[in-house]
C-alpha cells in the first residue's frame, strides 16, 4: 500500500532521498544534476531542501511502499510577494524498481491537494523535452505552455529542451 506524507529531516529520510536522487540521475532523469552524482552532493541538496521545508518555503512529499521510500515530489511555496497564489512542482522521481505503478501520479495529486490547502490556485512546472514526464503531466490535466530549446544538459551530457506546463487547482 502506498502512503504519501510530508518529509522532515531525519538521517534515514536523507539517506533514502539521496539514494533516490542518485539513481534517478544515473538513469537519465533530468532533475538538475549530472551523472555521476556524488553522495555528498545529494545529501547536501536534500539537507537544504528539508531545511527549506522546515521553514515552510516548500513541502517535500514522500511516497512509501510498505514503509520504503518509493518516490518523492516537491511543492515550492516561496513565490514572490506578487504571486501568493502560485506554487511550483519539482523533483518528481520514483525508484526505478517501483515505476509504472501509479506512484508518480499519486504524488502529483497529493502535491496538488496540498497546494490548495496552502491557498494556491495556480501551479507551474517544467520537464525535459526528451525523456521527461510530459505525458504524465498531460494525463493529469496540465496545460502545455511552450518549449525552450537547449535549456539544460542531460545527466549523461548533451543539451535538451524544456517543456513548460501550468494547471489551475482548487
Ligand atoms: C517520470 C516518473 C516520475 C514516473 O513515475 P511512475 O511512478 O513510473 O509514473 P506513474 O506510474 O504514476 O505513471 C502515471 C501515468 O503517467 C505515464 N507516464 C509515466 N512516466 C511517463 C513518462 N516519462 N512519459 C510519458 N508518460 C509517462 C504512465 O504511463 C501512466 O499513464 P497511465 O495512467 O495512462 O497508465 C519516473 O519515471 C521517474 O522518476 N523518472 C526520472 C525522473 C524524472 O524524469 N522526473 C520528472 C522530472 S520533471
What form results from the Cα inertia axes? globular
Structural class: alpha+beta
Sheet-strand content, in percent, reads: 25-35%
Query: What's the architecture, going by CATH?
Result: 3-Layer(aba) Sandwich
Query: The CATH topology, please?
Result: Aminopeptidase
- Counted up, domains total 1
Kindly report the average pLDDT value.
98
Highest CATH level, the class: Alpha Beta
Percentage of residues in helical conformation:
25-40%
Task: List bound small molecules.
Answer: coenzyme A
Q: SSE string, helix = H, strand = E? A: EHHEEEHEHEE
Q: Which runs of at least 5 residues are low in confidence (pLDDT < 50)?
A: none
| Lateral strand order in the biggest sheet | 1-2-3-4-5-7-6
Task: Give the N-terminus to C-terminus distance in angstroms.
Answer: 27 Å
The number of helical segments is: 4
Name of the CATH superfamily: Gcn5-related N-acetyltransferase (GNAT)
Number of E strands: 7
**Rg calculated over all Cα atoms:** 15 Å
> Can you summarize the main beta sheet?
7 strands, mixed
Amino acid at each position: 500500500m502506498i502512503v504519501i506524507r510530508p518529509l522532515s529531516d531525519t538521517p534515514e529520510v536523507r539517506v533514502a532521498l539521496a539514494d533516490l536522487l542518485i539513481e534517478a540521475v544515473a538513469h537519465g532523469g533530468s532533475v538538475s544534476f549530472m551523472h555521476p552524482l556524488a553522495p555528498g552532493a545529494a545529501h547536501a541538496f536534500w539537507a537544504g531542501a528539508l531545511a527549506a521545508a522546515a521553514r515552510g518555503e516548500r513541502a517535500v512529499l514522500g511516497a512509501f511502499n510498505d514503509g520504503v521510500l518509493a518516490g518523492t515530489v516537491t511543492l515550492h511555496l516561496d513565490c514572490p510577494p506578487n504571486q501568493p497564489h502560485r506554487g511550483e512542482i519539482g523533483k518528481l522521481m520514483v525508484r526505478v524498481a517501483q515505476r509504472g505503478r501509479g506512484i508518480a501520479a499519486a504524488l502529483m495529486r497529493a502535491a496538488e491537494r496540498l497546494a490548495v490547502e496552502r491557498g494556491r490556485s495556480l501551479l507551474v512546472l517544467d520537464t525535459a523535452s526528451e525523456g521527461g514526464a510530459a505525458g504524465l503531466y498531460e494525463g493529469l490535466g496540465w496545460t502545455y505552455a511552450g518549449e525552450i530549446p537547449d535549456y539544460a544538459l542531460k545527466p549523461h551530457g548533451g543539451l535538451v529542451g524544456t517543456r513548460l506546463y501550468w494547471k489551475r487547482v482548487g
